[in-house]
Write a structure and sequence with these properties.
The chain is an alpha+beta fold and 530 residues long. It has 14 helices and 17 strands. A seven-stranded antiparallel beta sheet has the order 5-4-3-2-8-7-6, covered by helices on one side. The termini are far apart.
Length: 530
């Protein structure tokens, strides 16, 4: 089936999947893709055949798994005969939760844990109850013996009463004075809404600065098993600063909400502009692609994989420069990532290695870059079907097709970025972004001037003021900004010494702004936990 034009992209139930849990789909990674060699000092606790269910393609695959005492659970298509190098699957059972079930297969067990920074459920089955008990016992033993990082411990609340007990905070516990709260901001317009909460344009009262404040419901974050994801990604956001990345200014919490005060840009999503223009010129695509490239180069240098590159996450500032957003503006109540029913990424953008449930590295971002640049220059997705199974099969095996209008340089670049095997993909070597920057398609780019924003953007958004929201969905911007306060007190900041077991040490003050610059000492102005 021919992919539809970008503005006509059909809704697949996951379209516009947006990280409204306070975080982007950023992922920490230690090294580029290389054959994985397990250190010999890690002792084998248990090994044998397991049936593993695919995360995206819901079929069962037989894999030979090896559990080691360092928490690694590695899988192979065949039983290794000469060492345990280059596994197909590489998981960890550190801090995991184990569940047993007899559906969808008898003798099933589920491991819930972290893959990089996303909570993932892995489903396995065996041939007997005895086998299941042996594996569950061994995994639990290894998990219990490993020290679990308190910040990413995955605790599952049991009922509504427990949630109310944990998150009800009396008015007396609210801190005053120097702590930031919602009272520090004037709410102007709703910019977006989603499962976890809403995004609101606001003005900081002390400085007049405009921000997009993302207000998330703690109960929903917990119910969706996004606690570990939210806290881990929040820490990543604090450490990143780049001209082509949306930045985090503050994060704080109220009795029942998490609040992220983010940089606000009003030039609109690239998806919106491409929908209007159908296709971008190669020159315009080159500019956007190059700025995205620099942002990803920075993230990879910080040991971070972005993993969810898509047009909806690429914004323009008022001058026309790209800003990769760690959140999007969602018009549907759609959850994202981290459960067996949802995806860590929009389906059309998933890289083959993610679909195959194999270990992935930085090259996953270069696949995403290939998809978005293909959309810009061709006006459609490289692979598309309304049927998810068909879509995934296309991503895994179909060769990408190019319109005749593309230049040889553009065609060669896209073909290199959309190679199925991440090790052979352009950017998939140890050189990472370096191999892409020297590609002939980018020959005309002065990378130093681009990084300093000295290159004039090919398009400038037609905004008349900083509060012009013409590029946001009018369904939201016309709404009245209203928040329902919790029963325990006003929407105010709370003391993090209060009983908030899931979100302790959540707050953050950036290096600028009225609160950080005016009310704290020089020591307090450091970007550290408040």
């Amino acid at each position: 089936m021919e992919p539809p034009l970008a503005p006509q992209r059909a809704s697949l139930g996951l379209q516009g999947v947006v990280p409204l849990a306070g975080v982007s789909p950023l992922v920490a990674v230690a090294s580029p893709i290389e054959p994985l060699v397990i250190e010999p000092q890690a002792a084998i606790v248990k090994e044998g055949w397991l049936n593993k269910r695919g995360e995206h393609i819901k079929n069962w695959r037989k894999r030979y798994f090896v559990l080691r005492d360092d928490g690694t659970l590695i899988g192979f298509k065949l039983k290794p005969e000469h060492g345990y190098t280059d596994p197909l699957n590489n998981f960890t059972v550190k801090g995991c939760q184990l569940m047993k079930s007899d559906r969808p297969r008898p003798f099933t067990f589920i491991i819930r844990g972290l893959q990089w920074t996303t909570v993932i459920e892995r489903m396995f089955s065996v041939e007997s109850e005895e086998d299941r008990e042996d594996w569950v016992r061994a995994i639990q033993l290894v998990s219990d013996q490993l020290q679990v990082d308190e910040d990413v411990e995955m605790t599952e609340p049991r009922d509504e009463m427990a949630l109310r007990d944990k998150f009800s905070v009396s008015t007396r516990t609210y801190a005053s004075g120097n702590r930031i709260s919602l009272d520090n901001f004037e709410f102007l317009k709703v910019l977006g809404k989603g499962t976890f909460g809403k995004v609101v344009l606001c003005r900081e009262k002390a400085t007049g600065a405009l921000y997009a404040i993302k207000i998330l419901k703690k109960k929903v974050v917990i119910d969706k098993d996004e606690v570990a994801h939210t806290l881990t990604e929040n820490r990543v956001l604090r450490s990143t600063k780049h001209p082509f990345l949306i930045s985090l200014r503050y994060s704080f919490q109220t009795a029942d909400r998490l609040c992220f005060v983010m940089e606000y840009v009003n030039g609109g999503e690239l998806f919106f502009h491409l929908s209007r223009e159908r296709v971008f010129t190669e020159e315009r695509t080159r500019f956007y692609g190059a700025e995205i490239l620099l942002a990803l180069e920075y993230l990879h240098g910080q040991g971070i994989i972005y993993r969810d590159l898509k047009l909806e996450n690429l914004l323009l500032d008022k001058d026309g420069h790209v800003k990769i957003a760690d959140f999007g503006l969602c018009k549907e109540d759609i959850a994202f990532g981290a459960t067996t029913k949802t995806f860590c990424g929009t389906p059309e953008y998933l890289a083959p290695e993610v679909l195959e449930d194999t270990d992935y590295g930085r090259a996953v971002d270069w696949w995403g870059l290939g998809v978005v640049m293909y959309e810009m220059m061709c006006g459609r997705l490289p692979f598309y079907s309304r049927d998810h199974d068909v879509l995934f099969e296309l991503i895994l095996v179909e060769e990408v097709k190019f319109p005749k209008s593309l230049s040889p340089e553009a065609r060669h670049l896209l073909a290199g970025l959309l190679v199925k095997n991440p090790r052979h993909r352009l950017g998939g070597s140890v050189n990472d972004v370096g191999d892409i920057k020297i590609h002939p398609f980018f020959r005309s780019i002065n990378w130093d001037e681009l990084a300093q924003k000295k290159v004039t953007p090919p398009f400038k958004p037609q905004v008349t003021s900083d509060v012009d929201t013409r590029y946001f969905d009018q369904e939201f911007t016309g709404e009245t900004v209203q928040l329902t306060p919790p029963e325990a007190g006003p929407l105010n900041s709370i003391s993090e010494e209060s009983e908030q077991p899931y979100f302790q040490q959540f707050s953050y003050h950036g290096s600028s702004g009225a609160l950080a610059a005016g009310r704290h000492s020089a020591t307090d102005r450091r970007p550290v936990l408040s």
